[in-house]
Specification:
The protein is α/β, with parallel strands linked by helices and about 350 residues long. Helix content is about 45%, strand content about 15%. An eight-stranded parallel sheet has the order 8-7-6-3-2-1-10-9. The protein has a two-stranded antiparallel sheet with strand order 4-5. Helix 9 crosses helix 10. The longest helix has 24 residues. The chain is globular and about 50 Å long. About 45% of the residues are buried. The structure holds 2-O-methyl-1,6-di-O-phosphono-D-mannitol (5MM).
Protein backbone atom coordinates (compact mmCIF):
# COMPACT_ATOMS: atom_id res chain seq x y z
CA UNK A 1 0.00 0.00 0.00
CA UNK A 2 1.23 3.50 -0.86
CA UNK A 3 1.10 5.55 2.31
CA UNK A 4 2.89 8.82 1.40
CA UNK A 5 -0.32 10.79 1.44
CA UNK A 6 -1.43 9.32 4.77
CA UNK A 7 1.92 10.12 6.31
CA UNK A 8 1.93 13.70 5.09
CA UNK A 9 -1.65 14.33 6.31
CA UNK A 10 -0.78 12.81 9.70
CA UNK A 11 2.28 15.04 9.99
CA UNK A 12 0.28 18.10 8.95
CA UNK A 13 -2.22 17.39 11.71
CA UNK A 14 0.53 17.50 14.33
CA UNK A 15 2.47 20.41 12.83
CA UNK A 16 4.35 22.31 15.56
CA UNK A 17 2.13 24.81 17.36
CA UNK A 18 -1.15 23.27 16.20
CA UNK A 19 -3.74 20.75 17.33
CA UNK A 20 -7.15 19.34 16.47
CA UNK A 21 -10.60 20.62 17.37
CA UNK A 22 -13.05 17.77 18.08
CA UNK A 23 -16.41 19.13 16.94
CA UNK A 24 -17.92 15.72 16.22
CA UNK A 25 -20.55 15.61 18.94
CA UNK A 26 -23.29 13.21 17.97
CA UNK A 27 -26.90 14.45 18.12
CA UNK A 28 -27.35 13.43 21.77
CA UNK A 29 -24.13 15.06 22.96
CA UNK A 30 -24.58 18.35 21.12
CA UNK A 31 -28.11 18.52 22.52
CA UNK A 32 -26.64 18.34 26.04
CA UNK A 33 -24.05 21.02 25.25
CA UNK A 34 -26.58 23.44 23.75
CA UNK A 35 -29.09 22.72 26.50
CA UNK A 36 -26.44 23.81 29.03
CA UNK A 37 -26.71 27.32 27.56
CA UNK A 38 -30.48 27.12 27.04
CA UNK A 39 -30.28 26.87 23.26
CA UNK A 40 -32.62 24.36 21.62
CA UNK A 41 -30.81 21.72 19.58
CA UNK A 42 -32.38 22.02 16.15
CA UNK A 43 -30.52 21.68 12.87
CA UNK A 44 -30.18 25.43 12.33
CA UNK A 45 -28.78 26.10 15.83
CA UNK A 46 -26.30 23.25 15.48
CA UNK A 47 -25.25 24.60 12.09
CA UNK A 48 -24.90 28.11 13.42
CA UNK A 49 -22.86 26.97 16.41
CA UNK A 50 -20.46 25.06 14.17
CA UNK A 51 -20.24 28.07 11.85
CA UNK A 52 -19.05 30.13 14.81
CA UNK A 53 -16.25 27.65 15.42
CA UNK A 54 -15.13 27.15 11.85
CA UNK A 55 -15.18 30.78 10.74
CA UNK A 56 -13.15 31.99 13.72
CA UNK A 57 -10.61 34.41 12.34
CA UNK A 58 -7.10 32.94 12.08
CA UNK A 59 -8.24 29.60 13.53
CA UNK A 60 -5.87 27.92 11.08
CA UNK A 61 -2.90 29.34 12.94
CA UNK A 62 -3.65 27.12 15.93
CA UNK A 63 -5.97 24.44 14.63
CA UNK A 64 -4.61 21.88 12.15
CA UNK A 65 -7.75 19.79 11.75
CA UNK A 66 -11.39 19.62 12.76
CA UNK A 67 -13.33 16.43 13.38
CA UNK A 68 -16.84 16.74 11.96
CA UNK A 69 -20.02 14.72 12.48
CA UNK A 70 -22.06 13.21 9.63
CA UNK A 71 -24.60 16.04 9.72
CA UNK A 72 -21.92 18.73 9.90
CA UNK A 73 -19.80 17.58 6.96
CA UNK A 74 -22.88 18.15 4.78
CA UNK A 75 -23.70 21.64 6.11
CA UNK A 76 -22.92 25.12 4.79
CA UNK A 77 -22.31 28.59 6.15
CA UNK A 78 -24.98 31.25 5.78
CA UNK A 79 -23.18 32.58 2.73
CA UNK A 80 -23.42 29.18 1.06
CA UNK A 81 -19.89 27.76 1.43
CA UNK A 82 -19.65 24.15 2.57
CA UNK A 83 -17.99 23.71 5.97
CA UNK A 84 -15.32 21.60 4.28
CA UNK A 85 -14.54 24.52 1.95
CA UNK A 86 -14.44 27.00 4.84
CA UNK A 87 -12.00 24.84 6.78
CA UNK A 88 -9.79 24.32 3.75
CA UNK A 89 -9.73 28.09 3.16
CA UNK A 90 -8.37 28.44 6.71
CA UNK A 91 -5.71 25.81 5.96
CA UNK A 92 -7.48 23.33 8.26
CA UNK A 93 -7.80 19.65 7.39
CA UNK A 94 -11.39 18.32 7.59
CA UNK A 95 -11.93 15.00 9.36
CA UNK A 96 -14.92 12.87 10.25
CA UNK A 97 -16.12 10.75 13.16
CA UNK A 98 -17.06 7.35 11.73
CA UNK A 99 -17.92 5.22 14.74
CA UNK A 100 -21.59 4.75 15.56
CA UNK A 101 -21.11 5.19 19.29
CA UNK A 102 -20.34 3.03 22.30
CA UNK A 103 -23.12 0.70 23.46
CA UNK A 104 -23.53 -1.75 26.35
CA UNK A 105 -21.45 -4.87 25.76
CA UNK A 106 -23.54 -8.04 25.97
CA UNK A 107 -22.64 -10.21 29.01
CA UNK A 108 -20.23 -7.56 30.36
CA UNK A 109 -22.12 -5.40 32.79
CA UNK A 110 -20.91 -1.82 33.00
CA UNK A 111 -18.68 -2.13 29.92
CA UNK A 112 -19.03 -0.76 26.41
CA UNK A 113 -18.17 -1.75 22.89
CA UNK A 114 -18.05 0.72 20.02
CA UNK A 115 -20.07 -0.12 16.94
CA UNK A 116 -19.94 1.01 13.32
CA UNK A 117 -17.89 -1.50 11.31
CA UNK A 118 -20.83 -2.63 9.14
CA UNK A 119 -20.83 -0.67 5.90
CA UNK A 120 -17.78 1.32 7.01
CA UNK A 121 -15.84 0.83 3.76
CA UNK A 122 -18.66 2.46 1.77
CA UNK A 123 -19.13 5.29 4.27
CA UNK A 124 -15.40 6.04 4.16
CA UNK A 125 -15.53 6.28 0.37
CA UNK A 126 -18.37 8.78 0.62
CA UNK A 127 -16.65 10.88 3.30
CA UNK A 128 -13.45 10.94 1.25
CA UNK A 129 -15.47 12.32 -1.67
CA UNK A 130 -17.04 14.93 0.61
CA UNK A 131 -13.54 16.14 1.48
CA UNK A 132 -12.55 14.34 4.69
CA UNK A 133 -8.85 13.50 4.91
CA UNK A 134 -8.84 11.79 8.29
CA UNK A 135 -11.27 9.89 10.49
CA UNK A 136 -11.89 9.15 14.14
CA UNK A 137 -13.18 6.15 16.13
CA UNK A 138 -13.53 6.25 19.91
CA UNK A 139 -13.49 3.21 22.20
CA UNK A 140 -14.55 3.62 25.82
CA UNK A 141 -12.96 1.71 28.69
CA UNK A 142 -14.48 2.10 32.14
CA UNK A 143 -12.68 1.55 35.43
CA UNK A 144 -14.83 0.11 38.22
CA UNK A 145 -15.38 -2.88 40.45
CA UNK A 146 -13.83 -5.79 38.55
CA UNK A 147 -13.68 -3.87 35.29
CA UNK A 148 -12.34 -3.40 32.72
CA UNK A 149 -12.18 -7.02 31.65
CA UNK A 150 -9.61 -8.32 29.22
CA UNK A 151 -12.48 -9.23 26.85
CA UNK A 152 -13.72 -5.65 26.73
CA UNK A 153 -10.25 -4.19 26.19
CA UNK A 154 -9.36 -6.69 23.46
CA UNK A 155 -12.70 -6.47 21.66
CA UNK A 156 -12.44 -2.68 21.47
CA UNK A 157 -8.82 -2.89 20.35
CA UNK A 158 -9.77 -5.29 17.59
CA UNK A 159 -12.54 -2.95 16.38
CA UNK A 160 -10.13 0.01 16.43
CA UNK A 161 -7.62 -1.93 14.34
CA UNK A 162 -10.23 -3.05 11.79
CA UNK A 163 -11.42 0.54 11.50
CA UNK A 164 -7.84 1.81 11.08
CA UNK A 165 -7.08 -0.72 8.34
CA UNK A 166 -10.22 0.28 6.42
CA UNK A 167 -9.35 3.97 6.75
CA UNK A 168 -5.87 3.49 5.34
CA UNK A 169 -7.28 1.44 2.47
CA UNK A 170 -9.64 4.37 1.73
CA UNK A 171 -6.81 6.97 1.97
CA UNK A 172 -7.95 8.51 5.26
CA UNK A 173 -5.68 8.89 8.29
CA UNK A 174 -7.25 7.01 11.20
CA UNK A 175 -7.24 8.68 14.58
CA UNK A 176 -7.24 5.80 17.03
CA UNK A 177 -8.98 6.84 20.23
CA UNK A 178 -9.01 4.38 23.12
CA UNK A 179 -10.36 6.42 26.03
CA UNK A 180 -9.90 5.08 29.54
CA UNK A 181 -12.44 7.23 31.36
CA UNK A 182 -11.33 9.46 34.21
CA UNK A 183 -14.76 9.05 35.89
CA UNK A 184 -14.58 7.19 39.19
CA UNK A 185 -12.72 7.08 42.48
CA UNK A 186 -9.66 5.20 41.21
CA UNK A 187 -6.09 6.24 41.92
CA UNK A 188 -3.71 7.57 39.31
CA UNK A 189 -1.77 4.30 39.62
CA UNK A 190 -4.87 2.33 38.60
CA UNK A 191 -5.50 4.69 35.68
CA UNK A 192 -1.87 4.16 34.61
CA UNK A 193 -2.23 0.38 34.78
CA UNK A 194 -5.45 0.25 32.73
CA UNK A 195 -4.19 2.79 30.17
CA UNK A 196 -1.00 0.77 29.67
CA UNK A 197 -2.94 -2.48 29.31
CA UNK A 198 -5.35 -0.87 26.84
CA UNK A 199 -2.64 0.71 24.70
CA UNK A 200 -0.69 -2.57 24.58
CA UNK A 201 -3.76 -4.36 23.30
CA UNK A 202 -4.45 -1.60 20.75
CA UNK A 203 -0.92 -1.66 19.32
CA UNK A 204 -0.94 -5.49 19.19
CA UNK A 205 -4.17 -5.40 17.20
CA UNK A 206 -2.91 -2.64 14.89
CA UNK A 207 0.12 -4.81 14.11
CA UNK A 208 -2.07 -7.89 13.52
CA UNK A 209 -4.14 -5.88 11.04
CA UNK A 210 -1.00 -4.52 9.29
CA UNK A 211 -1.84 -0.92 9.99
CA UNK A 212 0.98 1.43 8.97
CA UNK A 213 1.89 3.30 12.14
CA UNK A 214 3.42 6.27 10.29
CA UNK A 215 -0.05 6.95 8.89
CA UNK A 216 -2.10 7.06 12.10
CA UNK A 217 -2.49 9.37 15.09
CA UNK A 218 -3.18 8.17 18.62
CA UNK A 219 -5.80 10.00 20.68
CA UNK A 220 -5.48 8.72 24.24
CA UNK A 221 -6.59 9.92 27.65
CA UNK A 222 -4.06 11.49 29.96
CA UNK A 223 -3.16 9.45 33.04
CA UNK A 224 -5.00 11.12 35.94
CA UNK A 225 -6.56 10.46 39.32
CA UNK A 226 -10.22 9.44 39.10
CA UNK A 227 -12.44 12.50 39.01
CA UNK A 228 -14.17 11.56 42.26
CA UNK A 229 -10.99 10.61 44.12
CA UNK A 230 -10.39 13.21 46.86
CA UNK A 231 -6.64 12.74 46.44
CA UNK A 232 -5.77 14.39 43.14
CA UNK A 233 -2.32 14.03 41.56
CA UNK A 234 -0.52 17.31 40.86
CA UNK A 235 -0.10 18.61 37.32
CA UNK A 236 3.53 17.49 37.29
CA UNK A 237 2.69 14.01 38.62
CA UNK A 238 0.00 13.52 36.00
CA UNK A 239 2.26 14.76 33.21
CA UNK A 240 5.09 12.46 34.27
CA UNK A 241 2.79 9.45 34.64
CA UNK A 242 1.26 10.05 31.21
CA UNK A 243 4.60 10.40 29.44
CA UNK A 244 6.01 7.35 31.25
CA UNK A 245 3.00 5.26 30.28
CA UNK A 246 3.09 6.35 26.63
CA UNK A 247 6.84 5.80 26.35
CA UNK A 248 6.38 2.21 27.48
CA UNK A 249 3.85 1.35 24.82
CA UNK A 250 3.60 3.76 21.86
CA UNK A 251 6.10 3.02 19.06
CA UNK A 252 8.23 5.92 17.85
CA UNK A 253 6.89 5.35 14.32
CA UNK A 254 3.62 7.00 15.35
CA UNK A 255 3.97 10.65 14.25
CA UNK A 256 1.79 12.21 16.88
CA UNK A 257 -0.29 11.83 20.00
CA UNK A 258 -3.27 14.15 20.30
CA UNK A 259 -4.94 13.98 23.69
CA UNK A 260 -8.64 14.10 24.47
CA UNK A 261 -9.63 16.29 27.40
CA UNK A 262 -12.06 13.75 28.86
CA UNK A 263 -13.94 16.06 31.20
CA UNK A 264 -11.02 18.16 32.44
CA UNK A 265 -11.56 21.91 32.45
CA UNK A 266 -9.88 23.87 29.66
CA UNK A 267 -7.35 25.12 32.22
CA UNK A 268 -6.46 21.63 33.51
CA UNK A 269 -6.16 20.10 30.04
CA UNK A 270 -3.91 22.96 28.96
CA UNK A 271 -1.68 22.78 32.02
CA UNK A 272 -1.22 19.03 31.72
CA UNK A 273 -0.27 19.23 28.05
CA UNK A 274 2.08 22.10 28.72
CA UNK A 275 3.80 20.15 31.52
CA UNK A 276 4.22 17.11 29.25
CA UNK A 277 5.80 19.15 26.49
CA UNK A 278 8.16 20.72 29.03
CA UNK A 279 9.43 17.25 29.93
CA UNK A 280 10.64 17.02 26.32
CA UNK A 281 12.79 14.33 24.69
CA UNK A 282 9.76 12.64 23.15
CA UNK A 283 9.72 10.55 19.97
CA UNK A 284 6.32 11.87 18.86
CA UNK A 285 4.65 15.28 18.60
CA UNK A 286 2.34 15.83 21.58
CA UNK A 287 -0.70 17.97 20.99
CA UNK A 288 -4.44 18.16 21.59
CA UNK A 289 -7.67 16.95 20.03
CA UNK A 290 -10.00 18.48 22.59
CA UNK A 291 -13.73 18.73 22.41
CA UNK A 292 -14.97 20.17 25.67
CA UNK A 293 -11.70 21.85 26.67
CA UNK A 294 -11.69 23.96 23.50
CA UNK A 295 -15.40 24.57 23.22
CA UNK A 296 -16.27 25.46 26.82
CA UNK A 297 -15.24 29.15 26.44
CA UNK A 298 -17.16 29.39 23.17
CA UNK A 299 -20.34 28.03 24.73
CA UNK A 300 -19.96 30.44 27.64
CA UNK A 301 -19.58 33.35 25.25
CA UNK A 302 -22.62 32.30 23.24
CA UNK A 303 -24.62 31.95 26.45
CA UNK A 304 -23.81 35.53 27.44
CA UNK A 305 -24.84 36.69 24.00
CA UNK A 306 -28.11 34.75 24.07
CA UNK A 307 -29.07 36.24 27.44
CA UNK A 308 -28.63 39.71 25.99
CA UNK A 309 -30.68 38.92 22.95
CA UNK A 310 -33.48 37.35 24.98
CA UNK A 311 -33.59 40.38 27.25
CA UNK A 312 -33.80 42.73 24.30
CA UNK A 313 -36.59 40.71 22.74
CA UNK A 314 -38.60 40.86 25.95
CA UNK A 315 -38.19 44.63 26.18
CA UNK A 316 -39.59 45.08 22.74
CA UNK A 317 -42.69 43.28 23.97
CA UNK A 318 -42.23 40.34 21.66
CA UNK A 319 -42.81 36.79 22.84
CA UNK A 320 -39.67 35.80 24.69
CA UNK A 321 -39.90 32.11 23.97
CA UNK A 322 -37.24 29.76 22.66
CA UNK A 323 -39.38 29.42 19.52
CA UNK A 324 -39.13 33.10 18.68
CA UNK A 325 -35.61 33.55 19.92
CA UNK A 326 -32.84 33.47 17.37
CA UNK A 327 -29.17 33.68 18.34
CA UNK A 328 -27.43 36.68 16.87
CA UNK A 329 -25.42 36.28 13.70
CA UNK A 330 -22.48 34.08 14.64
CA UNK A 331 -19.15 35.71 14.48
CA UNK A 332 -15.78 34.74 15.79
CA UNK A 333 -16.52 34.25 19.45
CA UNK A 334 -13.00 32.95 19.91
CA UNK A 335 -11.42 36.19 18.80
CA UNK A 336 -11.46 38.01 22.10
CA UNK A 337 -11.56 34.78 24.02
CA UNK A 338 -9.17 32.57 25.88
CA UNK A 339 -9.06 29.44 23.79
CA UNK A 340 -6.56 30.48 21.13
CA UNK A 341 -4.49 32.26 23.76
CA UNK A 342 -4.19 29.00 25.64
CA UNK A 343 -3.34 27.17 22.50
CA UNK A 344 -0.76 29.70 21.47
CA UNK A 345 1.00 30.28 24.75
CA UNK A 346 0.74 27.20 26.79
CA UNK A 347 -0.63 23.98 25.50
CA UNK A 348 2.24 22.94 23.30
CA UNK A 349 4.98 23.81 25.75
CA UNK A 350 6.49 27.14 26.59
CA UNK A 351 9.35 26.92 24.13
CA UNK A 352 7.02 26.20 21.26
CA UNK A 353 4.53 28.77 22.50
CA UNK A 354 7.20 31.47 22.52
CA UNK A 355 8.26 30.60 19.00
CA UNK A 356 4.68 30.81 17.75
CA UNK A 357 4.13 33.98 19.64
CA UNK A 358 7.19 35.59 18.11
CA UNK A 359 6.06 34.60 14.66
CA UNK A 360 2.57 35.94 15.01
CA UNK A 361 2.18 39.20 16.75
C1 LIG B 1 -16.71 16.00 20.78
O1 LIG B 1 -17.07 14.80 21.43
C2 LIG B 1 -16.82 13.62 20.67
C3 LIG B 1 -18.06 12.92 20.32
O2 LIG B 1 -18.65 12.33 21.43
P1 LIG B 1 -20.06 11.56 21.28
O3 LIG B 1 -19.90 10.48 20.29
O4 LIG B 1 -20.29 11.04 22.67
O5 LIG B 1 -21.07 12.57 20.87
C4 LIG B 1 -15.77 12.77 21.40
O6 LIG B 1 -15.53 11.54 20.80
C5 LIG B 1 -14.52 13.58 21.41
O7 LIG B 1 -14.00 13.68 20.10
C6 LIG B 1 -13.44 13.04 22.29
O8 LIG B 1 -13.90 12.21 23.32
C7 LIG B 1 -12.69 14.19 22.90
O9 LIG B 1 -13.58 15.07 23.51
P2 LIG B 1 -13.22 15.67 24.92
O10 LIG B 1 -14.38 16.54 25.26
O11 LIG B 1 -13.07 14.50 25.86
O12 LIG B 1 -11.93 16.41 24.72
Amino acid sequence: MKTDNLESVARKLVAPGKGILAADESSGTIEKRLKSINVPSNEENRRMYREILFTTKDAGEFISGVILFDETIRQKTRDGRSFVEVLEQQGIVPGIKVDKGATAMANFRGEKITEGLDGLRERLTEYRKLGARFAKWRAVITIGDGIPTRTCIDSNAEALARYAALCQEGDLVPIVEPEVLMDGTHTIERHFEVTEQTLRSVFDSLAEHRVVLEGILLKPNMVLSGKENPKQASVQEAAEATVRCLKRVVPAAVPGIVFLSGGQTDQQATEHLNAMNRIGDLPWQLSFSYGRALQAPVLKAWKRQSITVRGATAKRGLANTPKRWKPRKPHNVWRGNRAPMFVRHASLGDAQGRRNNGRRR
